[in-house]
């Protein structure tokens, strides 16, 4: 039974920054293609994949509001629109290699994508389509990590897989402390109280309350997305 995938339905969170790679442009098409290929491989195994995509490669509301005096809600709406751009880019990439994909937005943009309808999203997944949730939660003052936790709970996905530019959760900031160790597992409580800054607290708390495990892993290592989706050991597992 060891070859049997661990998860049946997953929520893959891809941050905007991860899409940018080291390119000067906002999106590196090599990265979106790598994501598409790995997602294609697991959907062929029958695993249902929903995505939440971030927007930090294009616009981050909080930092603009802070530095420019732009009001926070307006800035956050721009941030949410940024996630829609990433979502459409990813959708087009997935469909270019034959993965049927639907984008659902948290606020209406009906010429561009479907509105978020929970039951419809689930139906798409059951039919083997990938669903990309865009525009975050639709509310300012939230993040796409929180959108990932929320959508995961709503569609009864079993796990949030958070694809990032780091290997997982460390016991200290690896940029400042070269001795920082990568953790195999960590509890929600430690993430919250030790402020391990892998995910914002709203997102972690939502997962904790709903017993949703979170796997934090590095998207830049080939094969990692496929491994994470199949439930193989990769990165750090956040749990109870
Ligand atoms: N955002 C928001 N509400 C949400 C999700 C996102 O207002 O529910 C805005 C917020 O301004 C955020 C931006 O969209 O900075 C981009 O999302 P995020 O920073 O979460 O993207 P990531 O860090 O994953 O690239």
UniProtKB/TrEMBL annotation:
GO molecular function: ATP binding; UMP kinase activity
Pathway: Pyrimidine metabolism; CTP biosynthesis via de novo pathway; UDP from UMP (UMPK route): step 1/1
Positions of the Aspartate/glutamate/uridylate kinase domain: 9-218
Assigned GO CC terms: cytoplasm
Keyword Nucleotide-binding applies: yes
Enzyme class: transferase
Keywords: ATP-binding, Kinase, Nucleotide-binding, Pyrimidine biosynthesis, Transferase
GO BP, sorted A to Z: UDP biosynthetic process
EC code(s) of this entry: 2.7.4.22
Keyword Kinase (UniProt): yes
Domain of life: Eukaryota
Family per record: Belongs to the UMP kinase family.
Name used for this protein in its record: UMP kinase
Residues of the full protein shown: 71 to 310 of 319
């Amino acid at each position: 039974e060891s070859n049997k995938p661990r998860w049946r339905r997953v929520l893959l969170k891809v941050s905007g920054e991860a899409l940018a790679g080291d390119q000067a442009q906002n999106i590196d098409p090599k990265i979106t293609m790598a994501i598409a290929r790995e997602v294609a491989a697991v959907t062929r195994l029958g695993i249902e994949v929903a995505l939440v995509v971030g927007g930090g490669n294009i616009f981050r509301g909080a930092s603009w509001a802070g530095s420019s005096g732009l009001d926070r809600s307006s800035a956050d709406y721009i941030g949410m629109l940024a996630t829609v751009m990433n979502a459409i880019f990813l959708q087009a990439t997935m469909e270019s290699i034959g993965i049927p994909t639907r984008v659902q937005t948290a606020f209406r943009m009906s010429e561009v994508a479907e509105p978020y309808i929970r039951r419809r999203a689930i139906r798409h997944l059951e039919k083997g389509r990938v669903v990309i949730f865009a525009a975050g939660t639709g509310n300012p003052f939230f993040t796409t990590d929180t959108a990932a936790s929320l959508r995961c709970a709503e569609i009864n996905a079993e796990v949030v897989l958070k694809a990032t530019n780091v290997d997982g959760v460390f016991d200290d900031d690896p940029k400042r402390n070269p001795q920082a160790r990568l953790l195999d597992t960590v509890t929600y409580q430690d993430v919250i109280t030790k402020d391990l800054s892998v995910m914002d607290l709203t997102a972690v708390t939502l997962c904790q309350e709903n017993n949703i495990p979170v796997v934090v892993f590095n998207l830049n290592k080939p094969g990692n997305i496929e491994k994470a989706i199949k439930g193989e050991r990769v990165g750090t597992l956040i749990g109870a």
